Amino acid sequence: MIDVLVIGGGNAALCAALMAREAGASVMLLEASPRQWRGGNSQHTRNLRCMHEGPQDVLVDAYPEEEFWQDLLKVTGGATDEKLARLVIRASSKCRGWMRKHGVRFQPPLSGALHVARTNAFFMGGGKALINAYYRSAEQLGIQIRYDSPVEAIELHDGRFVAARVPARDLDGGRRPAERIEARSCVLAAGGFESNRDWLRDAWGQNERGEWAADNFLIRGTRFNTGVLLRDLLEQGADAIGDPTQAHMVAIDARAPLYDGGICTRIDCVSLGVVVNRDGERFYDEGEDFWPKRYAIWGRLVAGQPGQIGYSIIDSKAVGHFMPPVFPGEQAHSLDELARKLGLPEASFVQAIQAYNAACRLGTFDHTVLDDCHTEGLVPAKTHWARPIDTPPYFGYALRPGVTFTYLGLKTDDTAAVRFGGKPSPNLFVAGEMMAGNVLGQGYTAGVGMSIGTAFGRIAGVQAAAASRGAHSSHNRGKHHAIS
C-alpha cells in the first residue's frame, strides 16, 4: 500500500509530494490532466510573495512580516485567519532554498511597471519552469506520477481517509478501467471549482432578465479544476470555509480564450486611465492603490457591471508606463470615434471623459509612488495618477472577469488537516486552492497564492508522511498482537 496519496498536480500538490518523499514515505501523485497540461494554475504563475527582513539574493530592501500582514489585511478587508496568514508569511521567507534544491531558479530583481522587486521573487522561466523542475525532482525521487487520473470521490471512515476512486477513462491508448486506490494518508490539492460553469452559475445567479452572470466569465487558468473532489468532501461533511462568489478574479482582455489564457491576458493600464461600463459611465476609483496590490479587485468590479463588461480607456501619454497587452486595443483619434469602435453610447462616454478631465488636479505624475495627481469633486474619485485623457491617439480595451481560482474550500488549521465537525482528520490533509479561503476570504495581492500553496503544501506533506508512519505502526502492532 502507498504511504501518501497526493491528489492534484500543481504547486501545492508537488510541494506536498516532495516533502512526504523526503520524510521517507512512498508517494503517488494523481494529476487529472494529460501530461502536456500538468501543473494546474501554477503553470501560469510568475512569482512568489516573500517576507524578508533585509536584502536577500533576488529580493531588494526589506519586506517585513508586519507589512506583508497589513497588505493582506487590506486586500481581504479582514476576511482572513490571522494565525494561518502569519504562518504563510513566515514560511515564505524560508522556502526558496528548498525550492532551489528541487531545481527552481529565480531571476534577478525586476524593475519597471510591476514594482514588485521588493516583495516578490520571480521564477526564471515562469510557472511552467517551476512545475517542470518539481516534476523532474519528483521522478528522480521515485514518486509515482499518474496523469489523466481525475478522482471522482473519496472513501472515508469516521473522518479517516480510506481510498480514492478514479473513474474509467477513454484515452488514446484505449479504455482505462475504474480504480480504487488505497493509501495510509492523503493530501488533497486538486484546486477550486472555477472551471465548473454550472457551479459558477449557482453561486452568481441570474439577473432580472434570466441571464447568468457567470456565462460572461473567462477562466484564466486550467480547465481541469472542476471542483468534483471539493463537492464530494463538502457533501460528506467536511467543514467548509469561504464564499462561493469570492475568487481571485482579474479584469482581462474580453478576447482572451475561455481557458488557460494566463497572465498575458491581463490588461494593466487601468490605473493610468479610466474604466467605463457599457453605458459609458465610470464606476470605481482607478487610482486607489498600486496596481500589484489592487489589480485583482477589477475582475469582481467588472462582474458587477451590466453584461459583466468594462472598458479601459487611455491616451497616448500612458503608453510605455504599463506592461503592453498581447492584443492591440481599439485606437482612435477622437473620443467619439473610440466610442463607436467600442460600441459605447457616444454622448454618455464623451461626457464621462470630459467630466473626468475637468476634475483632474495635476501635481507631479509618478506611477512608481502614490502621487498627488487626483480628481476633485468627481464621483467616483480617482485618487492617484489622474491625468486628463486629452492626447490622441486614444486606446480602449474591452474587459471581462477572468477567474483564476475560487475561495470556497475546506477549513483547516496549522497542521493542514481536513476537519469534520471541528475535529481534524488523522490522515487527510489539504493544501493550495482547496484551502486558500482560510487566508483569502476576499481580494488578492500578487504572488500570495503561491505563498499559500507552498507553505501548506509543505506542511501537508510532512503531516501526511507522519500520519502514514503512525498508520503503518498501528497496523504492524495489530498484526503482532494477533500473532502472539
Automatic annotation (TrEMBL):
Q: Any idea which UniProt keywords this protein has? A: FAD, Flavoprotein, Oxidoreductase
**Source organism, top-level taxon:** Bacteria
Cite a single Pfam family from the UniProt record: FAD_binding_2
An MF annotation (GO) of this entry = oxidoreductase activity
Q: Does the keyword Flavoprotein apply?
A: yes
Q: Which Gene3D superfamilies match?
A: FAD/NAD(P)-binding domain, Succinate dehydrogenase/fumarate reductase flavoprotein, catalytic domain
Q: Which residues form the FAD-dependent oxidoreductase 2 FAD-binding domain?
A: 3-440
Question: What are its cofactors?
Answer: FAD
**PANTHER family found in the cross-reference section:** FAD-DEPENDENT OXIDOREDUCTASE 2 FAD BINDING DOMAIN-CONTAINING PROTEIN, FUMARATE REDUCTASE
What protein name is recorded for this chain? Tricarballylate dehydrogenase
